[in-house]
Design a protein that fits this description.
Radius of gyration: 18 Å
Distance between the termini: 20 Å
Structural class: alpha/beta
Largest sheet: 5 strands, mixed
Number of strands: 7
Strand content: 15-25%
């Protein structure tokens, strides 16, 4: 199963009631090759905002994304079509550093009437890494702090989607053998998602297959990076 590690950049809004919009999607595709997880491809696209077409100075200062970058970009639906085509697999897990980006996907896609069938098998990598690094579970470790603790140099620029996704992928590769991928799908109901986390080693394969259409993917166990 492919691991798709993604990151979003969004508009920074100061006005009450003004929704944030995605303005950049970046992602890294990880596959197991000869028993070792490796980064095999990258994805990046700007997204044209429609609620607030003019970027604020706060947005440009925080992200480094300019009005020119988003002016000729496609709207979210078209960018997601290209993102899904880039994934090019029925067997994938989506991972991000913290849940904020998933929440943004869910909220904005629902507001814009964009289907969410593709937003499945989501795993909060930050939460698991915080536990693996034996940090206080009530205080999630930041991306920069995790990289520094692992002596991994940050590549690129902070608050750019592809660069943040790539650096998140470096952490994933480090802990790949210990990351539990969650099998879930985003529903059309207010609960937002239904989720199963496969951690019970006493369950049989038949037990797991009877619980979820995604259960056949649950046995994935990527080796650790050397």
């Amino acid at each position: 199963m492919l691991a798709i590690i993604y990151d979003l950049e969004m508009t920074v809004n100061r006005k009450k009631g003004e929704p944030s919009e995605i303005i950049e999607i970046g992602a890294v595709k990880v596959s197991t090759i000869n028993g070792k997880p490796e980064i095999i491809d990258k994805y990046q696209s700007f997204v044209r905002p429609v609620y607030t077409p003019r970027l604020s100075s706060d947005t440009e200062d925080f992200t480094g994304i300019t009005q020119a970058d988003v002016h000729q970009a496609s709207a979210l639906q078209d960018v997601l079509d290209s993102f899904i085509a880039w994934i090019d697999s029925d067997e994938y897990a989506l991972l991000s550093w913290g849940e904020d980006d998933k929440v943004q996907f869910v909220k904005e896609c629902r507001d814009k009437k964009i289907p969410l069938h593709w937003l499945m098998n989501y795993t909060n990598l930050q939460k698991q890494v915080t536990t693996l690094m034996k940090r206080n579970k009530n205080q999630q470790i930041g991306l920069k702090a995790a990289l520094e603790a692992l002596d991994i140099s940050f590549v690129g620029d902070h608050h750019r989607a592809l660069d943040d996704a790539y650096n998140t992928a470096l952490i994933y590769l480090h802990f790949a053998d210990h990351i539990k991928l969650h099998l879930n799908e985003t529903s059309d109901y207010e609960t937002y998602k239904s989720e199963l986390i496969y951690q019970d080693e006493e369950e049989t394969e038949d037990d797991r297959l009877s619980k979820s259409p995604f259960a056949a993917l649950a046995s994935m166990n990527l080796p650790n990076r050397n």
